[in-house]
Amino acid sequence: MFGRGVRRAAAAMCLAGALTGCGALEELGKAAGEAAADPAVITEDAPFRGSPSERFADGIAGVEIPEAKAVGRFSAKDVRSAYQVSRRLLEAAYLDEKSLLGGKPEAYARLLDPEQRTFFLKNLDHKDVKKDTRGWVFSFAPGTTELVGDVVKVQGKLSAAPGRDKDVGEMLVVTYEARFVYAVRPAGKKGPIVRVMAYTNARHEFWRDEPGGRLRHWEGDEIDRWSAGTECGSPDAFHRPSFRYEGGDGPAQDAYSDEETAPLKEGECGTVEEI
Questions:
Q1: pLDDT the model gives residue 2
Q2: Residue 184 located in a structural domain
Q3: How many domains does the chain contain in total?
Q4: pTM of the predicted protein model
């Protein structure tokens, strides 16, 4: 398991923002005064106003560390340490500005176990999208996007449970689920401003090679992963916001709901109501 350096990933899904940029569309058809009074308009000084994400915390504070309790042979101290590592990995993968704007995800790579780090960097931006590890982090295509303001809205949770692997024996598994909402616009331009959401639900795995040894960690399997407000059919592992407000196929979905919806068919592009 661990010798291969592989992270088994769920198929990523893109949801185009049918109404994500509705405020900007309305702005085109209204007088300036009317647009300014419309709570749906996404503005630079209040890019999350009117969105469910407005209630989310700012940045990594949105991923709370729960009370740590012993899990199997792993002490409460181990569990607390694992939670902190998971939180730092999420912060580096989804909130590091250099990585977000398409640069080399150095902050994230530094946090990986040395063995997995080697695999990650070797395959970063690989020409074969199936081998490309860029998808381990959330990055906009270089030169396409700039962040509006310095706030990303975040809501997430962590939980710990026992696990087992045939190679390393007992493990501590931290499952994380989080939504990250970004306010963005085309790079070098004044508008339009849209919101993009990244959703992730996956596992970090922790173990010791020997009793009393250091607690190692690994990016484990993904359970679910998708983005909303981004273009479908990306040729690589980078994300491109839907600045043109084109909807996808099928009925609109609620990006903030945890209720299961009918899975999309291969090649189908979903639609979200609002981000």
A1: 40
A2: yes
A3: 1
A4: 0.87
